[in-house]
Amino acid sequence: xxxxxxxxxxxxxxxxxxxxxxxxxxxxxxxxxxxxxxxxxxxxxxxxxxxxxxxxxxxxxxxxxxxxxxxxxxx
Length: 75
Fold this sequence. Notes:
Blueprint (H helix, E strand, L loop, with lengths): L1 E4 L7 E4 L1 H6 L11 E2 L2 E4 L8 E6 L5 E5 L3 E3 L3
Antiparallel strand pairs: 1-4, 2-3, 2-7, 4-5, 5-6
């Protein structure tokens, strides 16, 4: 497992898909809101390795969310 923490200057923003928002705790995320990425986690080796992003939710908790459940957001 590879873990990469992003400092403030390197953070980027994503939006969660509506399907991902439904699977996570109710009200934790909104598909219309940009969320900063605090860390990346890659489980395994190669291109097919599952990749996750550490995202803060609206209730102050952090969740590991699959990169497949996100899309890059504009600032």
